[in-house]
Amino acid sequence: MSRFYATTPIYYVNGKPHIGHAYCTTVADAAARFHRLLGEQTYFCTGTDEHGQKVQEAAEKRGIPPQQHVDELAEAFRGLLPKLHITPEQFIRTTEPRHKAVVARALQQLWDNDLIEKRSFAGWYSTAAERFWTEKDLVDGKCPDTGQEVVWLEEANYFFLMSRFQQPLIDAIESGKMRILPANRANEVLGFLREPLLDLCISRPKSRLSWGIELPFDSEYVTYVWFDALLNYVTAIGGFGAEADNAATLGEGAAPASGDKGTFETWWPHVCHFLGKDILTTHAVYWPTMLMALGLEPPRQYCVTGWWLMDNTKMSKSLGNVVDPLSLKDTYGPEVLRWFLLREMAVGQDANFSEAGLVKRNNTDLANDLGNLVQRTTALVHKHFDSQVPTLPEDRDPSPLLTSAIHLASYLCGEDTPFELTRSAQQVWPVEKTVDELKLHVTLADIMTLVQRLNQVLASDQPFKTVKTDKDAAAVTVYHALEGIRIAANLLWPAIPHTAEAILERVGWTRGVLPLADINWGDLPEGSAVPKGAGLFPRYKLDAPKDAAKPAPKPAKKAKQKGLPEITIDNAIGYDDFAKLDLRVGVVKVAEPVRKSDKLLRMEVDVGELGLRQVLAGVAKHLTPEQLVGTRIQVLTNLAPRKLMGLWSQGMMMLAETDDGRLVPMRPDGDAPAGSKIA
RNA sequence: GGCUGGGUAGCUCAGCUGGUUAGAGCGAACGACUCAUAAUCGUUAGGUCGUGGGUUCAAGUCCCACUCCAGCCA
Fold this sequence. Notes:
It is globular and about 95 Å long. By secondary structure, it is of the alpha+beta class. About 40% of the residues lie in helices and about 20% in strands. The chain binds one RNA strand of 74 nucleotides through helix 6, strand 16, helix 14, helix 17 and helix 18.
């Protein structure tokens, strides 16, 4: 059985989590889940990087010990995961004793094998940038990055002899042993490796940096970020003697499951490192050479993700263009955010982030296509099939289009079934292929073609019609539609896990999410109960940006119909404009004159679920309080509140104004209760 | 400055080893339907495939130059 060990970078705790962290982790989570669907044994680890100067300084600034400082920040990162429905097997922190022990053992081994050397080194040091510069790097004698003063500093440090592994690394990449996706990133690394590879400085004197892991062979130094951070990938799965510590720290059940050869060999090198393109060199050059020096295989696979842009520039605090996309999870829910992140961005490329884009993805993919499909299908079951999965009648074959949907599903699941390609599905790949290539956006698009095909089937088979004349025919369509939904939901589980599980229940499936190999069309048990429920994905409307260039108002459509006179509407509004109005039936509970006003009446109006609203209306000359109390009126409830005569008005009473200036309240006919929407 | 990749319909992009009228999604327009969350289904979109040369019976698809953009490195 093949294995898949997914990692994210361990995130540096010098700030709060942002969309970049969330994205990379979400992709890794979804990829791990997809591999689980493929029947592979998977392990997924993320965590935090907690040493270094910036952390040390931040803690000093707050006047608290660094450990306390990082404990708090690590929690911010760890706490984000469940909010995004991300479920790693492990969360690792570099300040944990088990990890420090691994780092010490690894460094000692390299020292013993003469792969680490002490060298003295001199250069212009910039405190602000935390690094040395050469003479020609300097700009006007100052740090080229920060523009701050630099000082000439001479110090001895320890160097990892990385240069010795240049050729083995090139070979590993070119032979495909170390696979970097997307491919252009591999070229980038190879380009970097055309130049001579230098040795890597891996230490800092304690005088400059105390918050780090001490070198086992020189207590005057701590190790700098590389060995400290990158080795977490090995610690997490029990390398360098961490098995016992892991089991003790994580608990037996939570530690990586041991295979026949022990935990570390179980997972290494079946790893896929997910990372942003900004840390490609450290992961694809420093890290594999470190592993080679330690006698280990280089990582098998990398997935390099792009950046989310705002208005085509990188999101950055200094640019002030950060609207904290993460907060959108609170507005629209984690599943919608996950869907947007996974579906909108081609893995490896940059993409633009916008709330409008997220809303659009939600509305078109999730609400219109998927959610509505579930809704319309189960509605038929409730109306005509006693809320049970219909029984398939004998001797009735599915329609050709329905058959193609069935074939499409099994094709996605990996069977070599031919199916008819249509205009909207010209190219579809088996899930296994696109997941292997980590083109998850394509995987999701392909699965959605199944959803679209099912909508086509309903339009063409018309079960809502045939159910009246030929119930067996309707039963065939509805049964298979439910089955198609069940399989689509199963396949979508890696992206939208909670929703997928909810959909499975909705179609009467109780066996949960299955691996692809166990998905068989027709397993949905006839007669199982189909529960009722509300819509899965609400549609959202987003106000158009104020400054957006408004398209020229279109001339009103001319209604062409025989016998209907043509009219021209100069000030026509679209349905969307109308839909902005929240008109409700209200029941007047209290009505009284407003002091010092001969026009205004103050009312308290019950508008059902919206509660009691205070409404002021200028009708005192036309109506008495007695004519209003206890009666029903129409209220516009989402008009911006306004103060009149010192009193807030939280709604507008709808009135007809006659030519002679009388005001007549609009009274709802019938018995619609308070709060009913008027449309 | 060096290296790499890219400039294809309003937007986002597919177009493998050169070969019938250059494709999809979104948006837009029009039509159909009414089971459903005003949703769904269908039809339509004529874009000098960055610019200029070249190879070829034939180039978005190969070669050269130029230009613009992005990334990596220094």
